[in-house]
């Protein structure tokens, strides 16, 4: 079966929009998780569950951002800044939250893992016209 170029373009355009929608959803979930006045998720009683949540929240935004063709230099700077700022806001502004430097570490590890996976996947799929660094 042959696929027309127009059909392939339409499918790739839909894929890009799906990645972008996933990226926006991950951003909203992350922002809710780190800036809500109370802890966003339930206290499950498992050691380090909060750190794993931070890792996944920030890692998923990094990965999905790269897949959605957000320039890496802007994406990663914004994520690292948000990792630090969110804990400062939790410590100084949100009375029922507490800033935790180990949350920042989990955020940074998540960003690194998500970016590594994102770079690996984007490079392997050779997205035409996608300059990961945004130069």
UniProtKB/TrEMBL annotation:
Membrane-crossing ranges are: 17-35, 55-76
The residue ranges of the VanZ-like domain are 44-117
* Isomerase as UniProt keyword: no
- Keyword field contains GTP-binding: no
User: Which keywords label this protein?
Assistant: Membrane, Transmembrane, Transmembrane helix
Which domain of life, per UniProt?
Bacteria
Stored InterPro entries: VanZ-like
For this entry, the protein name equals VanZ family protein
